[in-house]
Amino acid sequence: MGNWRENVRSVVPYVPGEQPQFTDMIKLNTNENPYPPAPGVMQALQAFDGTRLRMYPDPNVTELQAALAEFYGVRPEQIFVGVGSDDVLAMSFLTFFNSEKPFFFPDITYSFYDVWADLLKIPYERKPLDPDFRIRTEDYEAENGGVVIANPNAPTGLLLAPEEMEQILSHNRDVVVIADEAYIDFGGTSALPLLQEYDNLLVVRTFSKSRALAGSRVGFAIGNPELIRCLWDARNSFNSYTMDAVTQKAAAAAVRDRAYFEETCRRIVRTREEAKKRLAALSFTFPDSKTNFLFIRHRELPAEKIFEALRARHIFVRHFNGERIHDYLRVTIGTDEQMEALYRALEEIEKE
Amino acid sequence: MGNWRENVRSVVPYVPGEQPQFTDMIKLNTNENPYPPAPGVMQALQAFDGTRLRMYPDPNVTELQAALAEFYGVRPEQIFVGVGSDDVLAMSFLTFFNSEKPFFFPDITYSFYDVWADLLKIPYERKPLDPDFRIRTEDYEAENGGVVIANPNAPTGLLLAPEEMEQILSHNRDVVVIADEAYIDFGGTSALPLLQEYDNLLVVRTFSKSRALAGSRVGFAIGNPELIRCLWDARNSFNSYTMDAVTQKAAAAAVRDRAYFEETCRRIVRTREEAKKRLAALSFTFPDSKTNFLFIRHRELPAEKIFEALRARHIFVRHFNGERIHDYLRVTIGTDEQMEALYRALEEIEKE
Q1: pLDDT tens digit string along A114-149?
Q2: Rama region for B54: left / alpha / beta (φ>0; ψ in -120 to 50; rest)
Q3: Does any domain span residue B35?
């Protein structure tokens, strides 16, 4: 037996969210969209000429890029596309965070930021949220090598107001500021209009939530053309064909159906607002989410107990073991029917 | 305007191989398979239930892993899957090459090895091929942090004999040795049987050549379960959902059709062997390729001139500007019809 083990990168293996396979289950644990993707996606799959797969896909993802540019009213050169927003974010860290100074992000936020930083040997510093889980914008005024703000933040669901985002941008003109807007389509206010004024802003989005294409792995970034060019250059020097040809077609079809997109987002927001009333009546408190999930805490029952009791009923939600958040459960907004089943189960659990 | 530009990673932008769009063209420049993927791939696309795309894909790529395990007669725990072999190779470098010592690879080989090493800050050393483009196995006996051998090598097409590969493995038991077998299915002898003896061997493969799925982005690695576990752990700590759900199905379908795979590989080998005769008759010399391309040099005409003359006829081949290889053209093996058109064009060009 050789000693190759000595040179293996040691990682703390990430345990992916549970993917239970019960047929009767209600899956509210991974912030997926409860509605199917736009009908055009299914048509694109049906119409796809499989013989074309023998050839490499378009490395520039031109069709999808053009569809996104039209949707957001920007130029195609302002759009970078990647295999999920994880890919876009990791590529952005690699491209823009090359300072000796640490880049900043909140202590409670998307859990991959520090993982990529460690992996890419980028220094970073976590800025604690206040006791109400709010970002203190003044924390981001010190010298740094970049800033990443998930907005709305996860798993809290809280939105940073546009003027607060602008405050962070105006204090950080010499570094790139990333607005990770994975959940922005559920009633949040995007930083996109700030692109006019700030050439250091990069807005990152995903198809996994509002566009119901988690299974397709699509993310993108919008920024000024120079910033976006840097991303493509870094990507192409690393791996020149990343998005498969079928996904390029399916994702472009999803983008073209604005009406379906807006209607399903509206439905999820409506269900979420109803959920706030119902869960408040059930003795839960929560930050005022602008996402497709709620981060809820029961006034009396421990989160772990509720988690297990729901699980026994094949209702799956997410529990994180982090220091300041272990009393909470993250509950994805499902269909109205799924949510009614959730409320019934929670009523039972309160009475147990 | 801010100074964020100072912290942008400077890269030499890679110029991807030409993707011309003429309808009458003969595209022999990117080593794609001239035949379509297995019929089961088209069926899998047609049968795919698009509504499932709202959910995350299987992070463990279980179905494809099982199909590959069965095909190669290994256990599923011996298979790692990634988005193209570029993804698998980059992830392998990241996972296994963490020594202070340089890892070794030939000076003329796949052009991304040094790119990933630079990106991941891994030291490396290139070992010159001999004047006949052969790997000198003794070069790989010095202390190192790992070894990567493209076998057959690209763009030379030359195969390293199994006993030479074993020699490299036996001198490097304390580091991981990667056999990048992208082109092995065209008549090469794989290192796979050496897995019995060498727990430090990782065999990397792609679906882009022999399986005609370049458009789908699928690669995989086979190794002992411990090595493969390390790869999954590193991958999952970095990006937990990489392969989209449609591709997982399509690729598994391709693997299940062994007869189609073997028949199309056999056809390409037959066309290649005929091409060797025809091109030799046309005053070309070339290493004895065991791949789906030939690396050809004309006895009199400069490569650049032939390249341009073919291009004018809408026949696209590849020309590299590297120091020892600028006299050569890399020509992908197409269908018999495409190759006949190539021979006719070359005859004309010789007479010009």
Answers
A1: 989 988 889 999 999 999 999 999 999 999 999 999
A2: alpha
A3: no
